[in-house]
Design goal:
Order of helices and strands: EEHEHEHHEHEHEHEHEEE
Helix content: 25-40%
Number of domains: 1
Strand order of the largest sheet: 2-1-10-11-9-3-8-4-5-6-7
CATH class: Alpha Beta
CATH architecture: 3-Layer(aba) Sandwich
Strand content: 15-25%
CATH superfamily: Dihydrofolate Reductase, subunit A
Oligomer: single chain
Largest sheet: 11 strands, mixed
Bound molecules: NADP nicotinamide-adenine-dinucleotide phosphate
CATH topology: Dihydrofolate Reductase, subunit A
Length: 246
């Protein structure tokens, strides 16, 4: 992995971890991989766009965060599982001096998370359902009974700023949001995104699955802070709005 911006240099594992560190305190970064034309899936999954370097950055961003935030569409479609101590992320967290396990928080207005899924039943750090009061009460109760922590944030829809407050109150201040496009749209609209970490795959894909699930009320302006490269894949780091980096 080499850095192209700011100063060009080769990056070893330690330097890569430094390159992705964020300031202490509350911070929400979004991690995506997209093709040059903005497609986020090949045959319905993101894996077709990935590379060894992308998987390395994906694991590192998890390792540096307190919690994974993900929309239910992505958690279900990509087969999300809990982060365990003996997983690559768990081991990397240990090497970075962090607790090996971390929770996954699934955003779902309808509380669609399956109470029998591994994500709920096999998690060492309890999986969190982020939902709203309009979600079916029986579904919420079933998820709580199965072991999930249910956060009700908002009445008719999920109030994302309130959800991030609730996570921070539990010590989960540093969030890596892994999408998908609907959740990114909601998070940008709610003004809760500090950073976009976008891996740009050297591919043209076409199709309907784009980075953003719908038009924003107005363009979000981002500032480019870092570009890394490996095997033709660009790893960009943009701040959103007023966020500042060390
Ligand atoms: N290339 C990449 O890096 C990448 C990253 C992530 C996902 N993806 C791809 O994107 C596709 C999934 O797209 P998607 O837009 O459906 O994903 P998504 O945002 O993960 O899931 C949408 C669902 O999540 C819940 N949700 C999302 N935002 C919400 C909000 N603000 N408030 C309340 N609930 C919210 C809703 O669940 P309920 O319907 O249960 O209420 C909604 O139906 C998959 O094919 C996945 O592979 C690609």
């Amino acid at each position: 992995m080499r850095r192209l911006l700011p100063e060009p240099t080769e990056l070893d594992d330690d330097a890569l971890a430094e390159a992705y560190r964020v300031p202490a305190g509350r911070f929400a970064r979004v991690n995506f991989v997209a093709s040059l034309d903005g497609a986020v899936t090949v045959d319905g999954r993101s894996a077709g766009l990935g590379s060894p370097g992308d998987r390395r950055v994906f694991r590192l961003l998890r390792a540096l965060a307190d919690v994974v935030l993900v929309g239910h569409g992505t958690a279900a479609g990509e087969g999300y599982r809990p982060v365990t101590a003996d997983s690559p992320v768990g081991r990397l967290r240990g090497a970075l001096g962090r607790t090996p396990v971390m929770p996954v928080a699934v955003v779902s207005r309808r509380a669609s998370l399956d109470p029998r899924s591994d994500l709920v039943t096999r998690a060492t750090a309890r999986t969190i359902l982020v939902t709203c009061a309009a979600a079916d009460a029986d579904r919420r109760a079933a998820l709580a009974a199965a072991g999930a922590e249910v956060l009700v944030c908002g009445d008719d829809d999920v109030d994302l700023p309130a959800a991030l407050h609730a996570l921070a109150d539990r010590g989960l201040e540093q969030v890596v949001c892994e999408g998908g496009p609907q959740l990114l749209h909601g998070a940008l609209t709610a003004g809760v995104v500090d950073e976009l970490d976008l891996s740009v795959s050297p591919a043209l894909v076409g199709g309907q699955a784009r980075l953003l699930g719908g038009a924003l009320p107005g363009p979000a302006r981002l500032a480019l802070h870092q570009v890394l490269e490996e095997d033709g894949m660009l790893f960009t780091r943009y701040t959103v709005g007023d966020a500042t980096l060390r």
